[in-house]
Design brief:
The complex is a heterodimer of chains A (181) and B (425).
Chain A: E1 6-13, H1 20-23, H2 26-29, H3 35-39, H4 50-53, E2 59-62, H5 74-81, E3 86-89, H6 94-102, E4 107-109, H7 113-116, E5 122-126, E6 131-134, E7 139-142, H8 148-155, H9 159-166
Parallel strand pairs in A: 1-2, 2-3, 3-4
Antiparallel strand pairs in A: 1-5, 5-6, 6-7
Chain B: H1 2-7, H2 13-21, E1 34-38, E2 41-45, H3 49-59, E3 70-74, H4 83-99, E4 102-105, H5 109-116, E5 123-127, E6 140-143, H6 146-155, E7 157-161, E8 165-171, H7 180-191, E9 200-204, H8 213-222, E10 230-232, H9 237-245, E11 264-269, E12 276-278, E13 286-288, H10 289-292, E14 299-303, H11 304-307, H12 310-320, E15 330-334, H13 338-346, H14 349-356, E16 359-360, E17 381-384, E18 400-403, H15 406-415
Parallel strand pairs in B: 2-3, 2-5, 3-4, 5-6, 8-9, 8-11, 9-10, 14-15, 14-17, 15-16, 17-18
Antiparallel strand pairs in B: 1-7, 12-13
The chains are: A alpha/beta (181), B alpha/beta (425).
């Protein structure tokens, strides 16, 4: 499965510091290995009924430090399998960010974005340009640049899909590449 | 090149380890560089391991790159609290039988790896955020998720961005009733819960030498709560003594250069610290104990990988000895490893705990993650020495969690409300 490069949907707006215990509490995620089961507990801390309200293709817009706390990959998995197509945040916690790319959930970092978007505003996330467009006025917010190998990994749908297709990992190609410094 | 990197005065700890290890250690790496690091050790536990195993199989990889370097640890909900957990544990055991890697049951991964495997200079990836505890021994130890763990299992390598570093200078001496946990709580309060995101913390200054290995482990472990990638103590006499006691030798002793570049420098004078308490909801809502004294509690939890070592239990026992846990209040004490559990029994601490009315459990993550052995009900209030006070962390979404040192938690258990531990010491 390759991710489509233009994602259009309505935005759920979340505050700063949405941690992984809010996204999926431990006691639920530690009792299943099924992503669709995990999805039933997505955003449980804010709304136990979230999975019933979210629509396929919805988007997340959040403040700073989205996904802080635990290393649980079940957090981005729950969000993705609940139907959310991409997460846009002012910043991401380190492990959540790595996990999002690893499972093919687009994660775009745009400082200031949570003040520019209201609940259920329609947005268009462009994974080619790595930007977000607010549809009501057409304003485009460019996301902070991300290493090409990570964006490629996300576009191919995450590590499982990437490995099945290439029999290698996206960072393998970096071995001889010059570094960015 | 190896000697040149180790002796380079301009490099931080993180820059040195990555330069030494990335792609054979052929050149110096700087913050922002993306590198490929070979792992000396890869760990996953019972809430990240099952997903990693599923991903590993979905990728179609048949064998671990090196089973002798892979550790699966059943610690979070040990022994299984219900059938669903039991089935995931069985799934892990079956994978271990098939692959021939290590399995550990009933000690918290970070403490087990510290007691048995971690050495200075080692590169350790763990599918658990608190893996950064390994920095206490001068290791490059950091947390990742399940899919990246599966990728690491197949090749033994993983990408790593070279982090910027922050220096924290510790000076002065603790006053009575103040411990390592209060240092790190205070620091998190200073920088905020994302104040260390992507960064490598280096703990420096004249007071570092006064910190025991257990205290360093507490600080390195809990540094995760400001988001850091690494939290490191350089090798010194305390490290050497610890390594001797467990009969291990460093892979390399990496000392940050004196002219290394730091993004920030912070000073903490231990003599100015009071016992710290983080208020419910966010780990950076840090107050002194005096500001929250008297808040009624239903439960006090002393344990977790942050503060479940023998020195923590000794302090708790000192406070609980000859006293009773307040009627109507639960006090749950959970050691971080089987080894700590055994020491607690040999030192007579178990007896003190039981006589005080506390519950002394087996080693597990347990109450910290609200999975068993002390789950909170609706609107209950807990004071805990565990690392996180997030909404719903230990059970009901409406439950409230205060974070504090084991001493402050023990004092609260006696009074049934948040209390200053100094009057009991």
């Amino acid at each position: 499965m390759t991710t489509s490069t233009i994602l259009r949907g309505r935005a759920w707006v979340w505050p700063d510091d949405v941690n992984t215990d809010i996204i999926i509490p431990f006691r639920f995620k530690a009792r299943t290995n099924d992503p669709y089961e995990m999805a039933k507990y997505a955003m449980y801390g804010f709304d136990p009924e979230f999975y019933k309200k979210v629509k396929q293709g919805d988007l997340f817009v959040a403040g700073r430090n989205f996904g802080g706390g635990s290393s649980r990959e079940q957090a981005p998995v729950a969000i993705k399998y609940a139907g959310v197509a991409a997460v846009v945040a002012e910043s991401f916690a380190r492990i959540f960010y790595r996990n999002a790319f690893a499972i093919g959930l687009p994660a775009l970092e745009i400082p200031g974005i949570s003040k520019e978007v209201k609940q259920f505003d329609e947005l268009e996330v462009n994974l080619q340009d790595w930007s977000v467009k607010r549809l009501k006025d057409g304003r485009v917010f460019p996301a902070l640049k991300v290493a090409d190998f990570l964006r490629g990994l996300m576009l191919e749908g995450g590590l499982v899909e990437y490995y099945k297709r290439h029999k290698s990992f996206p960072w393998d190609q970096l071995k001889t590449a010059p570094t960015t410094h | 090149m190896r000697q040149a990197i180790l002796g380079d005065d301009s490099l931080t700890f993180a820059e040195k380890v990555i330069s030494l290890r990335a792609d054979g250690g052929e050149r110096v790496r700087h913050p922002g560089d993306i590198t490929i690091l070979p792992a000396d050790l890869a760990m996953a536990q019972d809430s990240t391991g099952p997903l990693a195993i599923r991903v590993f199989r979905e990728m179609g990889v048949e064998k671990l790159w090196d089973p002798s370097r892979v550790h699966l640890v059943i610690d979070h909900t040990y022994p299984a609290a219900d059938e669903k957990v039991a089935n995931l544990h069985s799934f892990m055991r079956e994978f271990v039988r098939q692959q021939g890697c290590h399995i550990v049951e009933g000690s918290i991964s970070h403490q087990h790896l510290m007691e048995h495997h971690i050495v200075p200079g080692m590169v350790l990836f763990g599918a658990d955020s608190h893996t950064c505890q390994g920095g206490a021994l001068g290791a490059f130890a950091t947390g990742i998720g399940s899919s990246e763990m599966a990728a690491l299992w197949s090749t033994g390598k993983l990408w790593a961005r070279v982090p910027e570093s922050v220096k924290v200078n510790l000076s002065g001496e603790f006053k009575k009733g103040v411990y390592a946990r209060d240092i790190i709580s205070h620091f998190i309060g200073m920088v905020g819960e994302d104040g260390g995101n992507y960064l490598s913390l280096e703990w420096k200054g004249p007071s570092v030498k006064t910190l025991t290995m257990a205290s360093r482990a507490c600080i390195s472990n809990n540094s995760m709560e400001c988001g850091c990638k690494l939290s490191v103590f350089e090798v010194d006499a305390t490290t050497e003594e610890y390594l001797q006691s467990v009969n291990r030798k460093p892979m390399s002793e990496v000392h940050a250069g004196k002219k290394a570049t730091y993004r920030d420098e912070h000073e903490i004078e231990l003599g100015k610290l009071e016992p710290q308490v983080a208020e419910p909801g966010n780990v950076d809502k840090v107050k002194t104990v005096g500001e929250v004294e008297g808040t009624p509690i239903d439960q006090s939890f002393i344990g977790s990988s942050t503060n479940g070592r023998i020195e923590d239990l000794v302090v708790a026992a000192r406070i609980l000895k000859g006293r009773k846990v307040k009627a109507g209040t639960r006090c749950i004490i959970t050691p971080a490893s089987v080894n700590v559990f055994e020491q607690a029994i040999k030192k007579g601490l178990a007896e003190i705990f039981l006589e005080s009315g506390a519950v002394f459990t087996n080693a597990t993550c347990g109450a910290c993650v609200g999975t068993h052995l002390g789950v909170l009900g609706e609107n209950e209030v807990c004071i805990s020495s565990s690392p996180r006070n997030y909404m719903g962390r230990m059970g009901a979404t409406s439950a409230k969690i205060y974070l504090a040192s084991p001493a402050t938690c023990a004092a609260a258990a006696i009074e049934g409300k948040i209390a200053d531990p100094r009057k009991y010491l």
